[in-house]
Amino acid sequence: MGLYIAKRLLAAIPVLFGLTIIVFVIMALIPGDPATAILGSYATPENVAKLNKDLGLDKPMVQQYFIWLGNLFQGDLGRSYTLNRPVLDEVMERFWATLILAGSALVLCSILGLIAGVISAVRQFSWADKLITFIVLIGISTPSFWLGLLLILAFSVQLKWFPVSGMYAIYGGGGPLDLLHHLFLPAVTLAAVATGVIARLTRTAMLEVLRQDYIRTARAKGLSERRVIYRHAFKAALVAVIPVIGIQAGFVLGGAVYIETVFQWPGIGSMLVKAISTRDLLLVQGGVLVVAAAYVLFNLAADVVQTLIDPRLR
Amino acid sequence: MSDQAAVSTGQQPEKRRKKDRKGRPSVLRLLLNNQLATAGLVIFSLIVLVAALAPILPLPDPDATAPADRLQPLFSAGHLLGTDALGRDILSRLIWGARVSLAVGISATLIAAFFGSLIGLLAGYAGGRTDTLLMRGIDMVMAFPYILLALAIVAVLGPGLLNALYAIAVVNVPFFARNIRGIALGLSRREFVDAARLSGKSHAQILFGEVLPNVLPVIIITMSTTIGWMILETAGLSFLGLGAQPPQADLGSMLGEGRKILFTAPHVSIVPGLMIFVLVMSINLLGDGVRDILDPRLKSGSLTRPTARTAVERKSVPATDVRGEDAVLDVRGLKTEFEIGSSVYRAVGGVDLKIRKGECLGLVGESGSGKSVSAMSIMGLVPTPPGRIVGGVAMLGDEDLFSASDERIRQLRGGAVSHVFQDPLSTLHPLYTVGDQLIEAIRAHQPLSHASARQRAAELLATVRIPNPEERLNAYPHELSGGMRQRICIAMALANAADVIIADEPTTALDVTVQAQVLSLLAALRRDHDTGILFITHDFGVVSAICDRVAVMYAGKIVETGTTEEILADPKHPYTGKLIDCVPVLGQPERRLDAIEGRPPVVNALPPGCAFAPRCPRAQPDCLQGEIAMRDFGPERGARCLHPLGEEGSADV
């Protein structure tokens, strides 16, 4: 078991390396000369050449990559020219905000999605199933950024139950309760689509499992239907759903970009949007890299959980 | 023979498809599905039509600003949906914006479908290194959170609608590549591709002429399920200000601009959002409909939840007071059918079975003869839908199992009547240890503590001669051999001192030596515990090893009964004779093994008379003239045949 987890951890390393290559290559593909982009089109050729040399851009690509990777290992992601501070500092500060938001959304969508999916499968074709299927369909089709606006209008502006935006109250804020108060709406919005996806998949997985021979065996043993469904079928369905929860981590981390913008949540997503419009590419690079790495780790966690449940994978 | 098999497997799926398109689980659901898909289609077409006609519709200029008219509310004069912060007509902008969003979403889908399918086809068709290389690349791209990758691409290319389109297309390529590669990989190992190769077609010809048409449904399914996403995501990028740039507007950028005045004029952002929602919803409804029709897994109700017990809707109930003197289990007139779509398959058409204490009754027949369905009907283990019991009684002692309550059936299952199934790997739960599964079976019927149930489980394993039982309790099914697993299943069937064990081909999945061990184990257990066994098999070799009496089944009916000796020595029904001829005899290698020609009939449209007649060498015209009654050949000995074996003269015409 420990060995398996160690193996999975090792297998994640090449993936992480792959990420660095892709991120590096994407940034290297930027049309035009970065030095000119930074200095503006009125820069003198001497200044451009000097900056190119300073940035190491006169060296071959492969060498540039390894220099960049070496810096990365030392925690040096470069300096953001718009914020005039190290990229790593800015990214790490904001990463926690994103992790709190995405993490709670992921927990929320897993729990709600699994419950809805199981109810839907067990009461197939009942009004509950139809209602859940309908809500899921709406959830999957709703633009999350629009849903966020609707929720703000309803619960913040009309009902005044939740704050409109931010992570903490500006005056007298702070503390976990204040955080929860601010977190609720963005987390629900972010979880909506993923909940639908997980519910759908859980329903299908449950229906598929319920036709398996071992379910017939469980019934032939004289087990109660409750036990057949919640002990035998659910566990087997979970094995199919967990990797999808891992994939949803990607959608949630990515979707955080919209939600953080809508709710002005101080995470990496809102930072990225700003960085892209100001063309602060080092900041984009750092943000993308950190979030992608987090996604790899989320998937790794999903793998490990799946292994804990399924002895065949050990 | 192999020709025949190829032809018949080639034809069968087609036949099945025709049948299933007509019928799925319930007409209501099908209708509902269709209505939703139809609604989706209507809405989507309407949006597309209006968007396409935008230039000729009497709309105000979407970009004409009118500061005096700014932020008009909904339904104001001249502006049905009001105006935005610059006084532009929202309805007009909405239609023009939908036009842009649709064009971008559809183009992105086509681009992603083209490149993704190409990569998938190549990887799947080429296999080997090309496959590994391409798919590793795809995996790498998929290691990114979807939207993040799109953002990174837009960051590089710079904000703009066209760049957003490229970004969304690129991040969707992996979905197509993966789905199509899987199918293409399977297809390129198929015979028709080999045949095309041998006939000298080029790789390109095979790929686009043979493989592509077969993956087309998958491409369409993937397109219909991703286009909604792509429209959403491009709208999202525009919302963030990274897609459409002013003055050009798509639905997303309208929403993004409106957001700035959310509190003062909510309709400016709500209306375009609603439009995106309706558009994506209609596409998803349509996509689900398309997928339901094209995805084979969703066909023929393979995804309906079976109930805990077979439905009983008896039209005929034989008298229950006539007791078979010493029978523990007495089944009379059992009829079970499957309703699949509009056709009804009468799998079991009036079967009588009687098992005495300690007796082993063999139920013999080819696959598809209805023997398993008969056996599974007894304790209501035939899945409903589509199965249902429509006639007969099953008397366990004085109790009719078909009219017992669900709770009573639960108590009897695994208690008085237990089961052993064919494939011990698929019938044991893969995620629980065999110990857990045994203990569960014991505690479902006996009020024992976990510890004493575990004790009992270990004893049971010892009874079925499993070495180191204590240790084995902690094993998972996949860690055991096939024979070992089947012993576990038998131990489970013994857990609560059953009166009757229903064994459905318990040795078929095992190899011959293990088969012999399991058979002798069952025989010993029967002696020691005086348990009645209903033993289902297609193999007369197995029958001779364990059964006291035999019932031969064909097309849902018992065609011959008798003691094992009588039937083996002197079969009356030609079908029985054929089945016996199929058994190899040790020491007689020169003996001819006759496979029975033809196949058992499909039971939804049985001809009158003897169902075996079309395959029977002794068939006469009168065989097809009407119901053939069981003819007595002695006490508990009978055959449903007009021209039985041993009555020559009438046969040799």
UniProtKB/TrEMBL annotation, chain A:
Transmembrane segments: 9-30, 95-119, 131-159, 179-201, 236-259, 281-305
Taxonomic superkingdom: Bacteria
Subcellular location: Cell membrane
Membrane topology according to the record: Multi-pass membrane protein
Keyword Membrane: yes
Every ABC transmembrane type-1 domain range: 95-301
Keywords: Cell membrane, Membrane, Transmembrane, Transmembrane helix, Transport
Membership in a protein family: Belongs to the binding-protein-dependent transport system permease family.
PANTHER family: DIPEPTIDE TRANSPORT SYSTEM PERMEASE PROTEIN DPPB-RELATED (PTHR43163)
Record-given protein name: ABC transporter permease
TrEMBL record, chain B:
Compositional bias (Polar residues): 1-12
Family label: Belongs to the ABC transporter superfamily. Belongs to the binding-protein-dependent transport system permease family.
Protein name: Dipeptide/oligopeptide/nickel ABC transporter permease/ATP-binding protein
Protein location: Cell inner membrane; Cell membrane; Membrane
Region (Disordered): 1-22
UniProt domain ABC transporter: residue ranges: 322-580
Residue span, ABC transmembrane type-1 domain: 98-287
